[in-house]
Amino acid sequence: MQPDIRFREAQRIQQSFLANMEKKTLYWLAPRTPLWINSDHLTLLGLLAMAGAGAGYWWARTNSQGLGVVILCLAINWLGDSLDGTLARFRNCSRPRYGFYVDHIVDAFGALFLLGGMALSGYMSPFVAAGLLLAYLMLSIEVYLASYTLGNFKISYFKMGPTELRVLLSVGNIAVYFKPMVHLFGRFHRLFDVAGSIGISGMFVILLISVIQNTTTLYRREPLPSFADQNKVEGRTVAVVEAG
Q1: What is the pLDDT tens value at each position of the chain, 244 positions in all?
Q2: Domains in the chain, ordered, with CATH?
């Protein structure tokens, strides 16, 4: 079956703190990946690792060593989630539509597994975990719509991308291992609840800014016709009807 030449892949915009280092690492790993491993294997590895991270948080409810399991799974998830596309491009076997769809539906399930585990961990309130999942999915919808309508697939915001978030979460796991509660505004709160609330607020602010910017850009590209233009169209329509 011939590929649909009308499909145009969205331009990836990645400007995070670790982007250059990450790109060099992936370019080093791609030619050294065994031939029996392909991009689909890596995508599946990333999904399983995120499920393992969720299970690690669930285990951490009774054994804090589960937090270490989460850190290990996040590292494996980075490998699978980041290397799959690079490997496909290096081996000249990219599947843009398949890759975009599968990669991001896997991300959605991965977020569900991870935040579901956090909700069961006892280190984060289920309501905060649900709020994070909602904010993540809303922002994802905005990103995917922008990719389709503007041709720009934005991966990072304010120099923060998926890799930086994995690092922050790993550091957070180490912090809650030693001090799961913090004193704030005269009360004790779960550290992850505080961080999660900040994350929810940040994602909704990013969502609002992106919606305004993208709506403005699209309106400028496709403005409503002026009153004079509408009259011309209506006049041509009437003339065609009368002629018919």
Answers
A1: 455 556 677 788 888 989 999 999 999 999 999 999 999 999 999 999 999 999 999 999 999 999 999 999 999 999 999 999 999 999 999 999 999 999 999 999 999 999 999 999 999 999 999 999 999 999 999 999 999 999 988 888 888 999 999 999 999 999 999 999 999 988 999 999 999 999 999 999 999 999 999 999 999 999 988 766 666 666 665 555 555 5
A2: 11-243 (1.20.120.1760)
CA dihedral 188→190→191→195, nearest 10 degrees, is -110
| 53 burial type by CB count under 10 A (0-12 exposed, 13-18 middle, 19+ buried) | buried
pTM of the entire predicted model: 0.89
Q: Which residue has the tokens 């890596």?
A: 42
No. of helices (H) and no. of strands (E), the chain = 8, 4
